[in-house]
């Protein structure tokens, strides 16, 4: 049960269970930032093709979307902590194969095997990680907890790309992937040390298991019958299509158009990650003061301007600053929508709703990555980012004409358009 907001409680940072989870996932995020840079660099180094980078991103993204279909079912059926540990160990083993194979020379084919499986495991992990926050803190602290987690992830990501650039330049991108593999061991160890709160007991109707597809569709129905969540899913599907390949295009722009090195790319991504830190720290006060709708719409509008500016920027500092703005607003919008789902979704449905939300709005991402990177190679980065930025602005405008605009500053279940599902797992009307 959630405690009243005014209850006498110690600060969140003094909660030992949350703190252990916080540290473990921050270390894992730091390792992830190595692969975030190293995988595209491995492909670019071996093939020299931004289109190949986009194809790998698309294949991995498709695997992630497919995993989302059953990931939520697994998370709602089985112990969330155990699933996260298994996902970590799977990625530890598979990413560990890459630097070993690269000792014999570039093996790009291996990335097309390893990365999709790791992204599928990562999707299950992410669904479990989002739902686990509900089992770590009280409901009125969800936005604060998500903000702290995202801020620390981002802080770790500032140093990660900087070090990844240095490691990649000195020892090769495969060495950076080895660091990422090791980070999953740290994450698994941290998860092993904690215990999650038990979920509230559900009614008999919700305990009975159905076929996996039917259970996934229960989460999809919840999304469709919640006006704000439905609008967010549609708008984010377009946004993801436009931005899924953004990092690949950014790396290509810095190295190909601006003549930067691998170290330069690491510096750009590392410093730009400060924007994610800023967004994670700003999101809670922004949402309290401006409301959910204004915060989410404003964040995505600014994202559009930043994306458009990156491609026409002619200096590395300008690209870094604009990318930081983009990541800041991406963080604000993402944490807002994540907290909203956690607040209004019953615990027994949370995994399925999260996976349905992600797998639906990420479904267009792989195709978007292919289109974006192909167009960058064919027409140039500037034209592509201008078009993508304009599309992001249209997403924000769409939010103005949807239930998202009317969502209030504290989207409790009682608000209009945010009515929680009854115990049976569906929403009437």
TrEMBL record:
Record-linked Pfam families: MFS_1
Keyword annotations of the record: Cell membrane, Membrane, Transmembrane, Transmembrane helix
Signal sequence interval, chain numbering: none
Keyword check for Cell membrane: yes
Topology in the lipid bilayer: Multi-pass membrane protein
Compartments in which it is found: Cell membrane
Top-level taxon in the UniProt lineage: Bacteria
Major localization class: membrane
Transmembrane intervals: 21-43, 55-75, 82-102, 108-130, 151-169, 175-194, 231-252, 264-284, 291-312, 318-337, 349-375, 381-401
SUPFAM superfamilies (alphabetical): MFS general substrate transporter
Protein name, UniProt field: MFS transporter
């Amino acid at each position: 049960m959630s405690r009243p907001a005014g209850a006498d409680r110690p600060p969140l940072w003094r909660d030992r269970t949350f703190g252990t989870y916080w540290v473990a996932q921050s270390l894992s995020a730091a390792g992830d930032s190595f692969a975030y840079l190293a995988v595209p660099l491995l492909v670019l180094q071996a093939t020299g093709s931004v289109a190949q980078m986009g194809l790998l991103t698309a294949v991995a993204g498709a695997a992630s979307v497919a995993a989302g279909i059953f990931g939520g079912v697994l998370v709602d059926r089985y112990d969330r902590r155990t699933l996260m540990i298994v996902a970590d160990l799977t990625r530890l083993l598979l990413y560990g194969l890459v630097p070993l194979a690269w000792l014999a020379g570039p093996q790009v084919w291996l990335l097309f095997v390893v990365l999709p499986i790791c992204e599928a495991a990562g999707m299950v992990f992410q669904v479990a990680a989002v739902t686990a926050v509900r089992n770590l803190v009280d409901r009125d602290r969800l936005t604060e907890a998500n903000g702290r987690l995202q801020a620390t992830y981002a802080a770790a990501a500032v140093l990660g790309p900087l070090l990844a650039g240095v490691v990649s330049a000195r020892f090769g991108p495969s060495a950076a992937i080895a660091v990422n593999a090791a980070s999953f061991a740290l994450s698994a160890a941290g998860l092993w040390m904690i215990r999650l709160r038990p979920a509230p007991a559900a009614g008999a109707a919700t305990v009975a298991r159905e076929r996996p597809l039917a259970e996934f569709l229960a989460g999809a129905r919840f999304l469709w019958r919640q006006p704000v969540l439905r609008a967010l899913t549609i708008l984010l599907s377009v946004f993801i299509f436009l931005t899924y390949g953004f990092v690949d295009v950014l790396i290509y722009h810095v190295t190909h158009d601006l003549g930067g090195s691998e170290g330069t790319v690491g510096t750009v991504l590392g410093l730009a990650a400060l924007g994610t830190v800023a967004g994670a720290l700003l999101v809670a006060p922004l949402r309290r003061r401006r409301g959910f709708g204004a915060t989410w719409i404003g964040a995505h509008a600014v994202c559009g301007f930043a994306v458009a500016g990156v491609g026409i920027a002619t200096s590395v500092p300008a690209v870094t600053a604009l990318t930081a703005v983009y990541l800041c607003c991406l963080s604000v919008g993402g944490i807002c929508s994540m907290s909203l789902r956690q607040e209004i979704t019953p615990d027994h449905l949370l995994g399925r709703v999260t996976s349905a939300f992600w797998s639906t709005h990420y479904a267009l991402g792989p195709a978007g990555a292919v289109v974006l990177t192909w167009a960058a190679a064919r027409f140039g980065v500037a034209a592509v980012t201008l078009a993508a930025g304009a599309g992001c602005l249209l997403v924000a405008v769409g939010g103005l004409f949807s239930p998202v605009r009317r969502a209030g500053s504290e989207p409790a279940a009682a608000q209009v358009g945010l009515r929680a599902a009854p115990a049976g797992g569906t929403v009437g009307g």
